[in-house]
UniProtKB/TrEMBL annotation:
Organism: Hymenobacter gummosus
Location in the cell: Cytoplasm
Top-level taxon of the source organism: Bacteria
UniProt keyword Cell membrane present: no
Lineage: Bacteria, Pseudomonadati, Bacteroidota, Cytophagia, Cytophagales
Gene that encodes it: rimP
Alphabetized Gene3D superfamilies for the sequence: RimP-like superfamily, N-terminal
Family indicated by similarity: Belongs to the RimP family.
Ribosome maturation factor RimP C-terminal domain location: 76-146
Identification of the protein by name: Ribosome maturation factor RimP
Domain spans labelled Ribosome maturation factor RimP N-terminal: 11-73
Pfam families: DUF150_C (PF17384), RimP_N (PF02576)
SUPFAM superfamilies: YhbC-like, C-terminal domain, YhbC-like, N-terminal domain
Alphabetical keyword list: Cytoplasm, Ribosome biogenesis
Length: 147
């Protein structure tokens, strides 16, 4: 069993997948951190996982290993990912089917405090921050702005 040993407690695994191909399986570990993650941490994690795979399956095991971070276009999937995006605009899909966009004011253990932006007669209006529980969020993405 792989232990995606990370360089510190502030880092966490977002996903770990193994492709089901007959030739060379591809192992993809997506990791993140409370303050983001740098190339040094990715390198350290890659070396640790490579060592673990070699110890468990032998150095002749055929596989491709990719250790990466979530891309800017990837949804936020772990509650720990939200805090560093405070002040940025998020697009939310809620479990009731609603979609909304707004500024992430803060995160709480229960959910997100978001100032929703709504359109009214060709104008945008920002509503007071409201709590959106994590259990009500089916998908959240950071809105990339090039302003």
């Amino acid at each position: 069993m792989l232990d995606a040993s990370l360089p510190g407690p502030e880092y966490f695994v977002v996903s770990l997948t193994v492709s089901n191909t007959a030739t060379r399986p591809k192992i993809t570990a997506t990791i993140d951190g409370e303050e983001g993650i740098g190339i040094d941490e990715l390198s350290t994690t890659t070396r640790r996982l490579t060592r673990q795979i070699d110890e468990a399956y032998g150095e002749d095991a055929a596989y491709n290993l990719e250790v990466t971070t979530p891309g800017a276009d990837q949804p936020l999937t772990d509650q720990r990912q939200y805090a560093r995006h405070a002040g940025r605009t998020l697009a939310l899909k809620l479990t009731d089917g609603r979609e909304l966009e707004g500024k992430l004011e803060e995160t709480t253990p229960e959910g997100l405090m978001l100032s929703e932006v709504v359109k009214e007669k060709n104008k945008k209006k920002t509503l007071p921050a409201a709590l959106f529980p994590f259990t009500d969020i089916s998908e959240a993405r950071v809105v990339i702005s090039f302003k």
